[in-house]
Structure formats: C-alpha cells, structure tokens
Design goal:
Layout lengths: L6 E2 L4 E3 L6 H8 L4 H4 L8 H17 L2 E8 L2 E9 L7 E8 L8 H15 L5 E6 L4 H9 L3 E12 L2 E11 L10
Parallel strand pairs: 5-6
Antiparallel strand pairs: 1-2, 2-3, 3-4, 4-5, 6-8, 7-8
Helix pairs in contact: 1-3
C-alpha cells in the first residue's frame, strides 16, 4: 500500500484528491479528449466525479501508482499521476491533465517538474516516461520544457475513443538532463 504525500513545488502543490475537487473533475469531463484517455467520466455528473476521486485513492491503496490533485491558488486545477506498472524494470510512466478553465498558466509544467524531482530524488526511479498524442501541442511543449526528450512515434499505440492513435514517446533519465532544464 502506498501513501500519496503532499509535494510542494514553486507554483503548485501536489496532494491527494479531496471531495471538494469534484468541480475540477466535472470541468475535465467537458473536455473532448480527457475522458477518452483517462478514467475521467465523459459526462459532467457529480456521482461519477466522486467515483473518479475514489478511484484515485484506490490506485495508491493497490500499489499501482500515485495520483495527485494539482493545486494552484487553493484550487484543484488538474491531475498528475506516477504509474508504477514497470517499476521492476526501472521505469515509471507519468500522465497529466489540466482542467479547461485553468490552462495556459504553467500549472502542468510546474506539476511535472515537482513530480519528476520527487520520483528521481525520493523514489530513486531511474527512468520516467510519458506518452502524448501528437496533436496535443500543449502537452508536448510541457514535456519538453521539463527536460523530457521525444524519443519516437509509436504507431497505433493507444485506443482513443473509437480509433487507434499514434503517440509520441518521451523519456527522461535520472542521470540525464536537469529536471526542468528545458529542451
């Protein structure tokens, strides 16, 4: 069983989800893509949003990973997760989203920098990776700003809604570039 800590970054705090974060999940439900690639419900329903929050707690309890609410200015602006399925192979996968009403303010990069530093320094994970839809320019720029290098295009990598989609593969190693050192 894992315990989701509270991590303080320069501009954000990463913390366990709370019941009052339902509004962030409801906002994310309105995005056309977030529900297709995450477990965020595809309709803005309070009960489904509460179930999403409960699933985030279950991820740590089951040991599959850490799911953090991204908080900025005392408001939940999104989610970032560190998924441990491949930890026995020396790597973990990161995923993140920012609610539509809170985008373009640097929250994703601040959260990614904070999580990356913690994963390398505290958990001693040798390699971090993430996968981004090539059309998601904001997430690509976030990854690159935080020192992740685009390593390739994975053809038909992910089921997104009713279709198979290509994904860019990004990676960063503990011995690689400085966290947040830019690309």
């Amino acid at each position: 069983m894992l315990e989701v800590p509270t991590l303080h970054g320069d501009a954000v705090t990463l913390r366990p989800f709370r019941a009052e974060d339902i509004d962030a999940v409801l906002d994310a439900s309105s995005d056309p893509l977030i529900p297709l690639v995450t477990t965020v419900p595809n309709v803005a329903d309070a009960a489904l949003a509460a179930a999403f929050i409960e699933r985030q707690h279950e991820r740590a309890a089951s040991g599959t990973g850490y799911s953090f609410a991204i908080e900025a200015n005392a408001v939940c602006v999104g989610q970032i997760g560190l998924w441990l399925r491949d930890l026995d192979r020396g790597r973990a996968t990161i995923g993140y989203w920012i609610r539509p009403s809170s985008r373009r303010r640097g929250h994703a990069s601040a959260a990614l920098q904070t999580l990356t530093a913690w994963a390398f320094e505290t958990l001693d994970i040798p390699r971090l990776q993430l996968y981004v839809d090539p059309d998601n320019t904001g997430s690509c720029l976030t990854a690159e700003k935080c020192g992740f290098e685009r390593e390739g295009l994975l053809r038909s990598w992910e089921q997104v809604g009713d279709e198979r989609r290509d994904m860019y593969s990004y990676g960063l190693t503990r011995g690689g570039r400085d966290v947040g050192g830019g690309g």
